[in-house]
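Lab meeting, item 3. Inverse folding demo.
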């Protein structure tokens, strides 16, 4: 059994940590808010509370076999003390975040040659309160098909989470970004849930974002093409009209959002390849300006 440190016990951290706890791993949750029991259950199933080992200050943290980074992309810089104390020479780090920069987000804060496993998370989960999470429909994680990625997947082999390694992680991560980039920006900027997809011009805006995301993803090596666009737009249009997404929910609650990991990234990566992405650039500027209101000078 492994000693697993979970940084960021939110929707994903609690679900993933809860799955490992049930399998007998020694799980330490490192967060900002205390809780003493973990309640993680699938929507509609009976919840069970299990005692949880939770730290809210980094002092006293000792390294684990694994350290799972489950804070949102923009929160990593606030979590560096956990990374400093939770990682020893033989610790492996996994980064469970949306976007395509899981490795880049953490690399500056860990020692050179620390194994970092980027993970695509396909696990719709909602935090009901500290230590309490409900997940829905599916619980899938994907890591690269190398020794560290396979070792990460092995942690979950008997759990309710399906963790698999893929020989084309780049494509998998960009496919997920094709879902997140249009939906996050459009709901957040309009302040409306998915019903907004039916408003005039919005589906075309989504198509334009997708075209840019696909062009940049292809330049980065993802095997994606424009055949993705219409099925993705149809899935946005068929979503429950009152449903939001995590950027929208964070914006409505007055919190920072992951706009930079989902939209800013398209602009950054496009510049590397000299690809024009005027729609993403405009959205990123608007999202950045909207966010700046949270930090008035
Ligand atoms: N939820 C989903 O359905 C879902 C699905 C796929 C992918 N993802 C991705 O998974 C990642 C995690 O998302 P999430 O939904 O789990 O977010 P979340 O529920 O907001 O959880 C983040 C957790 O990290 C904590 N945190 C923030 N800064 C911290 C720090 N410096 N030290 C310790 N803890 C800190 C937060 O504390 P507070 O309690 O104080 O906020 C919160 O408990 C994101 O990249 C997201 O895009 C999420």
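The presenter then showed the designed sequence:
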């Amino acid at each position: 059994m492994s000693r697993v440190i979970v940084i960021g016990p939110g929707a994903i951290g609690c679900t993933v940590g809860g799955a490992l706890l049930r399998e007998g791993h020694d799980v330490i949750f490192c967060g900002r808010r205390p809780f003493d029991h973990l309640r993680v259950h699938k929507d509609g199933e009976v919840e069970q509370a299990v005692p949880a080992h939770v730290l809210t200050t980094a002092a006293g943290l000792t390294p684990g076999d694994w350290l799972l980074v489950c804070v949102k992309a923009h929160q990593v810089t606030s979590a560096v003390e956990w990374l400093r104390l939770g990682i020893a020479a033989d610790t492996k780090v996994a980064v469970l975040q949306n976007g395509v920069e899981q490795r880049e987000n953490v690399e500056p804060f860990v020692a050179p040659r620390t194994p970092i496993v980027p993970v695509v998370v396909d696990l719709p989960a909602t935090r009901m309160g500290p230590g309490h999470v409900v997940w829905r429909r599916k619980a899938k994680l994907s890591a690269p098909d190398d020794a560290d990625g396979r070792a990460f997947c092995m942690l979950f082999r008997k759990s309710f989470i399906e963790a698999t390694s893929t020989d084309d992680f780049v494509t998998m991560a960009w496919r997920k970004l094709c879902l997140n980039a249009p939906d996050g920006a459009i709901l957040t900027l309009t302040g409306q849930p998915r019903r907004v997809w039916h408003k005039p011009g919005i589906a075309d805006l989504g198509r334009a974002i997708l075209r840019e995301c696909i062009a940049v993803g292809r330049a980065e090596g993802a095997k994606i093409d424009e055949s993705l666009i219409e099925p993705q737009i149809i899935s946005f249009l068929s979503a429950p009209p009152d449903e939001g997404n995590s950027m929208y929910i964070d914006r409505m609650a007055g919190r920072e959002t992951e706009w930079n990991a989902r939209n800013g990234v398209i602009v950054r990566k496009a510049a590397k390849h000299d690809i024009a992405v005027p729609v993403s650039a405009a959205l990123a500027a608007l999202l950045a300006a909207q966010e700046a209101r949270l930090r008035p000078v």
